[in-house]
């Protein structure tokens, strides 16, 4: 069975064809605009006019909305509740829950921050869905980034998919040996112990195997390295990077001017 080593979804779309560095600029621009813009509704508008249309343009809308429902929204919702209940700002109390007061100001503050986090995580999710780690590593290395830093980046992007794939393999192997992994909560919790051991040991073995493999391929060699896969960098990519850089600079300038 082929193990999926990244979140990348192969599609033929304009966003997929962009240079990886251009998509990094896009992610950074969205984050800076969401966090530095003084207007309250900016993060909400970014979700409506940028994040959602980009996911549809990239033809990964189903995967993005699935990730948003399973991962992004629960994390953002927890952050929203914590800040709404424990942020001591404002005097106009909307409702009380035992000794906790929720004010109008704390509710708006929590909602604004939650939406900023939603934009940030959503932008990175779109980046992961439309960019293969090997393309990112090849492009960054070609631009002069040391191989060690490129390896750290690609390893970080691949660690969660690798753990998920190994966990599924371990669960299937333990099921074939008669381990009960389904049922009520206590039974599933008890089945975690025989699953954690093989998962951790297998991950350690994989790290050692990867270290041997990259040394065998001359990873630490100082000579100039070439790539079999040429990453395109069109004039459109360059123009988009300049435009996104200008947007980021304007966001920073506006924040400093109004502060």
Summarize the structure.
With 259 residues, this protein is mainly alpha-helical. The protein has ten helices and two strands, in the order ααααββαααααα.
Largest sheet, strands/sense/barrel: 2 strands, antiparallel
Number of helical segments with 4 or more residues: 10
How does the overall form come out from the CA principal axes? globular
- The percent range for strand residues is under 5%
Order of helices and strands: HHHHEEHHHHHH
Whole-number count of domains: 2
Structural class: mainly alpha
Rg value? 22 Å
User: Quick one: how many beta strands?
Assistant: 2
Average predicted confidence as pLDDT: 79
The residue fraction in helices comes out at over 70%
Low-confidence stretches: none
How far do the termini sit from each other? 55 Å
Strand order of the largest sheet: 1-2
How would you summarize the topology of this molecule?
Blueprint (H helix, E strand, L loop, with lengths): L13 H4 L2 H17 L5 H16 L3 H26 L6 E5 L2 E4 H27 L2 H10 L4 H30 L8 H6 L2 H24 L18 H24 L1
Antiparallel strand pairs: 1-2
Helix pairs in contact: 2-5, 2-10, 3-5, 4-5, 6-7, 7-9
